[in-house]
Amino acid sequence: MNLSTHPLLLGGVLILLDLVLWQGLGPARRTLRSGLRVLVFALFCWVMVAAGISPLQPPPWPEDAVLNLMATVLGIGWWLFAARTLTVILGHGLTTRVGQSARLLHDVLGAVIFLVAIVGAAAYVLQLPVKGLLATSGAMAIILGLALQSTLSDVFSGIVINTTKPYQIDDWVSIDGVEGKVLDIDWRSTHLQTEAGSTAVVPNSLAAKAKVLNHSRPGGAHDVSVSLAVPSGIAPRLALEALEKALQGTHALLPGPKVSIKSSQLEFNEYELKGFVASRSARSGVRNLMFDLAHRHLEAAGLTWGEGSNTKAWSRQRQLLEEVRVMRALSLEERDRLAEAMTPVDFQANQVLLAFDEVADSLMIIATGVVSVAIHDGDRVVEAGRMGPGEVMGEEGILADGRSRGQFRSLTSGRLFRIEKSLLGAQLQHSSDLLMALDRLQHQREDIREAVVLKKPAPVKKTGLLRWLQKH
User: Fold this and answer.
1) Residue with the larger pLDDT of the pair 450 and 318
2) What is the pLDDT of residues 344-396, one digit of tens each?
3) What is d(CA 448, CA 438) in angstroms, rounded to the nearest whole number?
4) What is the mean pLDDT of residues 311-329?
5) For the chain, what percent of residues have pLDDT higher than 90?
6) β partners of residue 217
7) Given Cys at both, which of 91, 267, 323, 360 links 394, Cβ 3.0 to 4.6 Å?
8) Whether pLDDT at 465 is above 70
């Protein structure tokens, strides 16, 4: 085959081959696609040279209309093919070094490269007067610039955003009061996915001028807070002590949570509990847990509000039996008798209430205070969770003289109530529901222990460690 006779055919075959390879390999094989495009472009250049055609000179056969047309088409094709190849190489380099945030810069550079290619093809292949063309295009650019002023502002603002990087893809931001996760930053706008699941489109020009809050920077901490109204008749000192314990009992909070009096009214004082969590997705669950623990610790300290028809006449130990889910298997009369036999035990901060491998001789119910639960992870001892009012310890020893797989150490001072094994054993003999509830609690705590050791994240629920362990 004579290349000088069929260069257009071979050039067309190479361009078609390039398109097939580009689409067939897919974006996942970016490096291979870029390499094959460079190879096909090199073959295209070889076809041009072998056919005696130069993209920097007019066609060499002005007397032959067919060959002149072939040379012109191949020359224009070379400029466009070269622009596309160079754009792909630059895009691959930007993505490798900067990541997906460089996509807008890549698009702008690609547009400039193609504009240069079009001007080059017009000047060298078509032999058009480039100066007049540039002057005409300059006038048209002024007209288009005035007509597209808003769009151009968005484009250049997008370049500024990608250069200064106040936010990137997957960051959680608030732009001019619109809060959401950054899905995309294109030529004109920034796309945010809101907490409601909808998509908010913020023009880049607005994002460049507006106040931007990036909740993902510097990273690793997301704020969570709750506010509570406590009757003003309750002494702030007592309320603050109870709410401090609620914060200490929230295991998911990062170090340094605080409680403060936010405002004071005639009827109530408003308290704010504030801290940080490592994951934004955990904020809702941690907030619910903070509310629940605040209520439980306030109630445990005797700081209640509202009239309760059933609980008003109950003692603290009788009220605890209502709060402990495993005890709901007993009848009201059985719970009344059990409450009378419960023994109070006061403890101080940093006191081991139940040690590793210890066989508990009683079921212990926390009335006030915060208790940390630690487990063995190989040679290390790690904290698995924290417990508060209404949660129990020692079920392993009650069921089958089992040894404790964890260590229960108090973080604050407080009080617990003991139910002796001999007394509880009589209840277990004729209450299969209570036996099943304790057995289920034991197995679920074992699952939690294995999840912590295997580094599997356990979800934070709103009602404390006991309810966390009991999913039914």
Assistant:
1) 318
2) 999 999 999 999 999 998 999 999 999 999 998 888 888 888 999 989 998 88
3) 15
4) 80
5) 19
6) none
7) 360
8) no
N- to C-terminal Cα separation, the chain: 80
**Cα Rg for the chain, rounded, in angstroms?**
36
- The residues near 126 (Cβ < 8 Å, ≥ 6 apart) are 72, 76
Q: Domain 222-300 belongs to what topology?
A: Alpha-Beta Plaits (3.30.70)
Strand order in the sheet with 199-203: 199-203, 189-193, 178-185, 172-175, 212-214
Structure tokens at 468: 């966390």
Would you list the domain boundaries of the chain? Answer: 7-147, 166-214, 222-300, 316-469
**pLDDT > 70: what percent of the chain?**
81
CB 366 within 8 A of CB 416: yes
Q: Contact 303/230 with Cβ under 8 angstroms?
A: yes
Give the mean pLDDT of the chain: 79
Q: pTM of the full predicted structure?
A: 0.57
Nearest CA to 245 out of 315, 296, 305, 285 is that of 296
DSSP string of 199-225? EEEEEHHHHHHS-EEETTSS-S-EEEE
- Given a cut of 90, is residue 247 above it in pLDDT? yes
∠325-322-415 over CA atoms, to 5°? 95
Helix (H) or strand (E) holding 294: helix 283-300
Per the listing, tokens 């901060």 go with 349
* Residues 441, 470 contacting (CB under 8 angstroms): yes
Find all residues with CB under 8 Å of 198, minimum gap 6, and list them: none
Neighbours of 105 (CB within 10 A): 17
Judge whether residue 433 has pLDDT over 90.
no
* 197 close to 152: Cβ distance less than 8 angstroms: no
**Which position has the higher pLDDT, 234 or 141?**
234
Question: Cα dist. 466→188, 319, 387, 415 in Å?
Answer: 51, 16, 7, 17
CATH architecture of 166-214: Roll (2.30)
